[in-house]
Amino acid sequence: MSTEAAPVRNLRFSLDWITRPVFGIALAAIAIAALDEGRWYFALFVCVFAIGAVREWHRMVEHRKFAREFWLSSAALALSLLVLAAAPHRREAWIVLTAGALAVFVSARARAAHGLWHAAGVLYIGIPALLLVALRDSGARGAWIIAGFLLIVWATDTGALIAGNLIGGPKLWPRLSPNKTWSGTLGGIAAAMAIEAIYIGALGGEALVAVAYAIAVAIVAHGGDLFESAVKRRFSFKDSGGLIPGHGGVLDRIDSALAAATVVGICVLGVGLDPLFGARL
Fold first, then answer.
1. How far apart are CA 74 and CA 53, in angstroms?
2. At what angle do helices 142-167 and 207-234 cross, to 10 degrees?
3. Is residue 77 in some structural domain?
4. Measuring CA to CA, which residue among 114, 140, 136, 151 is closest to residue 46?
5. Which residues on adjacent β-strands are paired with residue 177?
6. Strand partners, 35
7. Each residue of 103-130: b (16+ CB within 10 Å) or e?
8. First vs last C-alpha separation in the chain
9. Is residue 73 a part of any domain in this protein?
């Protein structure tokens, strides 16, 4: 029997090892501060990220720094979020967002420029943005629900990065994302399970049930990451942008959150799920 040791992965130092956590922590701190201040501050925070993301979406679709549809999309996102923050329980915000997507479609089709793709970006980014703001205003527990959601998404991304780099191994879906591995995917899910169990346990909720919730959200988050990778590959883009050092573009930073926020928002606001699982607040 061979006694030869398995080779250790050859890890090379990268500046991303410093910039990624530094900027990640800074962004997390801003997000939590905005969440704590109330729905207007949180809506502003979401709006800034949404506009940054939709700019990158149009840039990917058309390979131009600023497509004219960007201005229509930005107006639709900003106005819909403003309307929702002012009247959280009314439908006008969703009407504004839908009208904005239609206007973007018509504008792009008028110049034969991927109308469906341009319009899809408004909904892809706008729906989770509105759901997050609506969640923030869903009672006293809204901020705690979003905080738990953010912890799961951040833990999934961080766990996947660390496990993928340290362990490596078989690729998850090389045709879509050549760098993602099964070890990273499972590491992200494990990190999400741990952080959510601690969070809900500390709040006095049912930690074991929360673990199942964390697994589901982490899987959806991974799916969101793969979806953005598929779109980038479709339009021959490596990174959606370079605005956030160590993270790439805004879309690269929030692709997991967009998918997960949509599912969590529908489950909480539409189905009545309690993501705090009996926590006493």
1. 10
2. 70
3. yes
4. 136
5. 173
6. none
7. bbbebbeeeebbbebbbbbbebbbbbbb
8. 59
9. yes
Cα gap 131→266, rounded to integer Å: 8
For 60-81, write each residue's pLDDT tens digit. Answer: 998 776 778 999 999 999 999 9
The residue to which tokens 């099964």 are assigned: 182
DSSP assigned state of 6:
P
Q: What is the pLDDT of residue 138?
A: 80
Measured over the CA atoms of residue 58, residue 74, residue 24 and residue 257, the dihedral's sign is negative
* Domain assignment present for 228: yes
Domain tally for the chain?
A: 1
Answer for the pair 133, 46: CB distance below 8 angstroms, yes or no: yes
Predicted confidence band at 246 (pLDDT cuts at 50, 70, 90)?
Answer: low
pLDDT exceeds 70 at position 10 = no
DSSP-assigned letters across all residues of 86-130: HSTTSSHHHHHHHHHHHHHHHHHHHTTS-HHHHHHHHHHHHHHHH
* pTM of the predicted structure, to 2 decimals: 0.90
User: Structural domain of residue 248, as residue ranges?
Assistant: 16-271
State the Cα–Cα distance between residues 76 and 133, nearest whole angstrom: 15
**252 vs 97: CA distance, rounded Å:** 23
Is 276 inside a domain boundary?
Answer: no
Rounded CA-CA distance 179/184 in Å is 10
3-state secondary structure of 177: strand
Residue 244 DSSP symbol: B
Residue 207 tokens read as 């930690």
Residues 255/227, Cβ–Cβ less than 8 Å: yes
